[in-house]
User: Fold these one by one.
Assistant:
Number 1:
Amino acid sequence: MELKNRNLNVPIAIISIVIPVVVAILFYLPHPGIEAGFDIRILPLFHAILNSATAVLLAASLYFIKNQYKKAHKIANLIAVVLSIVFLLSYVTYHFLAPKTMFGDMNHDLVLDAAEKAAVGSVRYVYYFILLTHIVLAAIIIPFVLFTLLRAFQGDWPKHRKIAKITWPMWFYVAVTGVIVYIMISPYYV
């Protein structure tokens, strides 16, 4: 498929809006009570592993391009995109099927009582700050990744480099904070 002269701005815009909207709606849907056929409790760890691998690939990608290993740079980024797609599909599946989890909710009643608040203390604010920035940037990063990828496939290197300088730090932050969020909330999973 020839991407050089194709204007994919509208499809990228649609994808960039649909994905965050679907994920947001997912959090307001009632728990369906459907069994997955496997223990879905392994998925958060799987997500952390995917995020870790993505962060490593992004760091490698930066190293590769700074050292002119263009093919390795391309491969690292394409694998990072694939891992991000796998993450998104698995994440949506998990949050559709799993009961809600709340940071600090030791008894899993989805109410953070005074004792639970005291137990987690101010770490709760650190967690919510990291989570909020992670979520916002995870939504914002979608068009950046897609446009960066498109510019590379089009061979528009000046635009690719310009947008990659914005995309890389955001994407790396999202990948790393995804792992941090997992580590912080994992004690509260059912």
Note: The domain at 38-188 is CATH 1.20.120.80 (Four Helix Bundle (Hemerythrin (Met), subunit A)).
Number 2:
Amino acid sequence: MSTTAAASATAASTAIASAAIATRTLAVPGATLHFQVAGRGPVLLLSQSGEGDADRSVDLVPHLADTFTVVTYDRRGLSRSTLDDPARPVTMAEHADDVARLLAEVTDGPALMAGFSMGAAIGLQAVARHPGLLSTLIAHEPVMPNLLAEADRAEHLAELAAIRNAYAAGGLTAAFPAIARHLGIDPAHDETEGDLTPQPLTPRRRANFGFFIGTEFTAVTTNDLDPAEPLRAAARAGTRIIAATGRTTRPTVHTYRCALALAARLGTEPVEFPGGHNGNTAFPRATARTLKTLLGR
């Protein structure tokens, strides 16, 4: 093994060794949240996309835990984060308030946050509702139709409705092709890093998909947050917002266009992350390097 390779292996083993995970729960209005804490350093909250719970970050966390105190969680209604009333709708405001309460449990000061898709939209909502909560938010391809111009917004909403209708008619078998089209994913040519933890379609993941499509789509499509509000709140509080895209995401994908629209409002260029819309799970090592570079500035 070369000196460089040996050093890389040592660094990787150090990161993994430091990633002992503490599992905790937090009672919040209307729910009990499951969250996990690993590592040391500034607090970094990871908020996943789609049906993703804390376990979706299993391959990413070890490569961040040598630099950050990494917090991951199950959104209310997913996996181990149970709802007091499962029949009651969940709102984006509640998701944002959950983020604030979670961070209050682990830090006294502003935290870092990387949100992906749904997680990015929650992060923007949190910036608006809780100024000063975050020092930096990385918003990777947020699912936030309000960022788009009227015609594009209507297309984005229509795609989400088509996925929901497909799921209602034929379950996940019918919904998966619609989701893949929506996100520009070709499962037959989906590249990843090696040695990833398997993520089989377990009953729990199936239930999470059902909750995401059946309940959280409504939270997204009825969200009336003015896209200018997070930017105003960020400016007042000194929060840095970074719009991010996947390097291989197709430009026609609406969440990609949401990131471009956010960057335009910020007056910046979007930052590229490895892979496509789900690059943080497909390329966790490369994603960790990108996060360290951005958050170390």
Note: The longest strand covers residues 31-39.
